[in-house]
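Narrative summary of target 7.
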Amino acid sequence: MINIRSLIVLSLFLFLAGCGTYSSFTVKSAPSGADILVDGTVMGKTPATIKVPFPENNQLVREKKIVSVKLKGYKEAKEILCYEGDTGKLLNFELVAEPGSDVTAQVTAPHAELEKKAALEAGIK
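Modeled conformation, tokenized:
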């Protein structure tokens, strides 16, 4: 016969076994101000520290999550995450401008000036 204490312990174990867990990630991007999405849900803007839920399935296997950052005029950047404990991992995204966007013109112009200046300093015309 099962006593009450054993029944309570068993109940708590079963209740907690189906619970997931969270992991913290610091998300940065260059340039900053990009939307942070986890599986398509907006979690804030860069830079930020977010808590990502990792529920467990019946086999106690953690799910994978897709973290992406989006900023107008830039290509979306993505990374697949797996639960690694609450490690405070840093995700640092270097955003690339979309071809033909206003951002490309702003990035290209200063770059061209630097190349011209370097060529003049090197004695190349």
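Residues 18-97 form a domain with the Immunoglobulin-like fold (CATH 2.60.40).
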